[in-house]
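Format notes (please read before filing issues)

Several people have asked whether sequences and structure tokens are stored in separate files. They are not. Every record keeps both together, in the order shown below: the sequence lines, then the token lines. Line labels are part of the format and must not be stripped during preprocessing.
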Amino acid sequence: MARIGSRPIEFGDKVDVTISSDNVVTVKGPKGELSTDIDPDIKVNVDDGEIVVSRPSDQKQHRALHGLSRALIDNMVTGVVDGYKKELTIIGVGYRASVSSGVLELALGFSHPIYFLPPDGVDISVDDSGKNTVITVEGIDKQLVGQVAAKIRSLRPPEPYKGKGVRYVGEHVERKAGKTAAR
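Then the structure lines:
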């Protein structure tokens, strides 16, 4: 049996899980609702507070889909109950971020400001109180939160010489030595 796929997913009273006839799993919780298509070969059953995912055979494709399907459903349950959050920090002189009416405005050393409109289901907030500016990306869809955070980071990734740019909180950037004087 699969290691991940064979584990049942437990959910509480606050979560409602429905499975349609064409294998679409819908999860409703206090923070919202998510749904995803599961491969027709994979069977999903709901039994008194647990979701059990099973596969028809030990073929390589079925083994891969088994763990994937279980992980996707588990991420949906976690998302509608707790939500997901990614934090980014901006390092650099003159680099700023602000949010006005849901639009993120970034000054990242270019000749123009960058305006980033987050997709539906993702909230962005900026904390400017500490040493560095921290951008928080929150939502119920794990994939979408990660994608938005990666997109913001890609606008000015950290460079290795001075470390300036946008990086994840806790991310380590390997620093390089600059040019040395010629003798």
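For reference, the curators noted about this record: Helices lie at 60-81, 142-154. The domain at 84-168 is CATH 3.90.930.12 (Outer Surface Protein A; domain 3).
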